[in-house]
Amino acid sequence: MPKKKATTFEDALAELEQLVNQLEQGDISLEDSLKSFERGVTLTRTCQKALQEAEQKVQILIEKNGTQSLEPFTDE
Predict the structure, then answer these.
(1) Which long-range contacts (CB under 8 A, 24 or more apart) does 27-33 make?
(2) How buried is residue 44: exposed, middle or buried, by Cβ count under 10 Å (0-12/13-18/19+)?
(3) What domains appear along the chain, each with residue ranges and CATH number?
(4) Burial zone of 36 (CB within 10 Å; 0-12 exposed, 13-18 middle, 19+ buried)
(5) Per-residue pLDDT band at 58 (split at 50, 70, 90)
(6) How far apart are CA 69 and CA 49, in angstroms?
(7) 59 and 68 in contact (C-beta within 8 Å)?
(8) SS3 63
(9) Diameter over CA atoms, the chain
(10) I want to staple 43 with a disulfide (CB 3.0 to 4.6 A). Which of 4, 16, 18, 19 is the partner?
(11) Are 52 and 24 in contact (CB under 8 A)?
């Protein structure tokens, strides 16, 4: 299993999905499963960090005159 550094959130998420699929199939050895799990944890942390950074940027962008002006999201 090649170890590549995920460069974007989307890359990390795609790789994480592949790892989950491999683990769910159960066709790999215990050692490879553990390596995949470890890589998955790293990718999960990468995704969480990217989401936190995006949330911070959104918070900064929605601030108006030093106060936040949040509006509820409606899915229409």
Answers:
(1) 32/1
(2) middle
(3) 9-62 (1.10.287.1040)
(4) middle
(5) confident
(6) 24
(7) yes
(8) strand
(9) 57
(10) 16
(11) no
